[in-house]
Inverse folding.
């Protein structure tokens, strides 16, 4: 029963399930941690987990033909021949999720900067970053 | 001890559920082949035998980011721009007090090491950014690497040292605007060339297309620049480095003490 294939599947399942659990933990932090900074930290963990999911979707499995690993979507030479190109297409992972994740990372960083400045103003105005106290304040 | 028990419980939950998932199905496992769209991207990103489809960039991710889906990235840059503008607007109460004048900062060892490694980090960041069309990396990654330098100098010296060297918020805003204008002009470059020579051309065009002969040079002085990709990476690097420097400067201004006017 314990074959290489089973072991591969098990390792990839561990990756997926860790991501799901990470997702749940970050949602817990986002909803139930009262402190503003901890909410921001949970939000960044949430977005990083989602990005890792997206990259995982673009991953390709061990190519059984020739028993070779997948490789990054970068051609290692600028003097290209048809054989290099066909080997690249046969082995490389999907570049599209990586490009989308790059976009998402930039936007996530920009939003984090905005939230940090918002937190600064919250502290200046209310002298606290505890969301339970801020929620009770009127005006 | 309790922390160890919690960690053990988490790890065993992950391992156990993964085992159940493995035995139950293979739903989560990526296949041996990629999607047809990915095959298209991979086979045309650097393919001199298909001159109307290729980008002449060995790095497929940069080719997608700035050519195949270039408009997407332009709007992403707009989001970055607007979020930073919003951040600066929220930081309107933050102002710089007078320089206390004392020699602040960390010890002389740390300062010397920072002086040595600073130019190296800039070189690495520029290399990441300007080789974005050849190796993993690109304008954003290079810019983020370069933006580490002002942060390190603020920590080891002081924010007054950085501002005394001329790296002020207003100058960084100008530099960032220069980068963004460069991105906009690069996006319109093929269109401007097409208008100048009286041929059909499109916004965000890079290489020649079947309906348009206008093409930006793939090779410059026999080294690969992939048309617009190199310029996009350069200007994005400038804009991102300057943008992050603004945020770091504003966040490290010394705070007013209790009782002082904000």
């Amino acid at each position: 029963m314990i074959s290489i294939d089973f072991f591969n599947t098990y390792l990839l399942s561990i990756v997926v399930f860790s991501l799901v659990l990470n997702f749940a933990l970050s949602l817990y932090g986002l909803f139930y941690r009262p402190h503003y900074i901890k909410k921001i930290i949970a939000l960044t963990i949430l977005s990083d987990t989602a990005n890792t999911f997206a990259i995982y979707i673009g991953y390709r499995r061990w190519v059984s033909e020739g028993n070779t690993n997948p490789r990054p979507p970068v051609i290692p030479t600028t003097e290209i021949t048809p054989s290099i190109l066909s080997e690249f297409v046969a082995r490389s992972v999907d570049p599209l999720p990586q490009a989308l994740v790059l976009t998402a990372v930039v936007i996530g960083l920009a939003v984090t900067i905005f939230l940090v400045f918002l937190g600064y103003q919250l502290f200046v105005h209310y002298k606290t970053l505890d969301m339970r106290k801020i929620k009770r304040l009127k005006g | 001890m309790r922390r160890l028990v919690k960690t053990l419980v988490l790890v065993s939950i992950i391992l156990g559920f993964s085992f159940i998932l493995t035995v139950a199905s293979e739903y989560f496992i990526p296949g041996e082949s990629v999607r047809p769209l990915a095959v298209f991207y991979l086979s045309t990103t650097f393919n001199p035998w298909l001159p109307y489809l290729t980008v002449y960039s060995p790095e497929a991710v940069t080719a997608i980011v700035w050519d195949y889906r270039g408009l997407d990235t332009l709007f992403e840059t707009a989001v970055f721009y607007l979020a930073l503008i919003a951040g600066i607007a929220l930081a309107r109460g933050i102002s710089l007090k007078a320089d206390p004048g004392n020699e602040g900062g960390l010890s002389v060892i740390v300062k010397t090491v920072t002086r040595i490694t600073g130019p190296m980090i800039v070189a690495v960041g520029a290399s990441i950014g300007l080789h974005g069309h050849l190796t993993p990396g690109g304008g954003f990654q290079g810019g983020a690497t370069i933006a580490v330098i002002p942060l390190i100098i603020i920590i080891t010296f002081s924010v007054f040292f950085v501002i005394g060297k001329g790296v002020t918020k207003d100058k960084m805003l100008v530099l960032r605007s220069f980068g963004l204008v460069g991105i906009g002009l690069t996006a319109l470059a093929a269109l401007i060339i097409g208008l100048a020579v009286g041929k059909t051309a499109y916004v965000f065009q890079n290489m020649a297309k079947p309906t348009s002969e206008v093409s930006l040079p793939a090779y410059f002085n026999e080294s690969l620049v992939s048309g617009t990709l190199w310029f996009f990476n350069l200007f994005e690097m400038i804009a991102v480095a300057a943008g992050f420097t603004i945020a770091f400067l504003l966040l490290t201004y010394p705070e007013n003490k209790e009782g002082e006017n904000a």
